[in-house]
Amino acid sequence: MSYVPVVDPDECMAHGDCVEVAPEVFRLDDVAVVIGAAPLELLLAAAEACPAAAISIVDEETGAVRYP
Ligand code: SF4
Q1: Which domain holds residue 13?
Q2: Model confidence, pTM
Q3: C-alpha–C-alpha distance, residues 63 and 57, integer Å
Q4: How far is the CA of 62 from the centre of ligand 1 (A)?
Q5: Domain of 38: which CATH number?
Q6: Coil, strand, or helix at residue 7?
Q7: What's the domain count of the chain?
């Protein structure tokens, strides 16, 4: 089972905390965009670090929300 992060562009404040936690997963443009994959633990750490709660973690196959 693999998970992917999803950034809500309407909630992202573009401060870049997720990029600091997981630069291989997120890049900061006008808002954060997803550029890669990582283990669930790192995805959760990035999502928990987001001050805007803009990052969801979903099951890539089923779409089930793992976080929040
Ligand atoms: S940590 Fe959250 S608010 Fe900050 S850039 Fe990433 S997604 Fe946007």
Answers
A1: 3-67
A2: 0.94
A3: 9
A4: 24
A5: 3.30.70.20
A6: strand
A7: 1
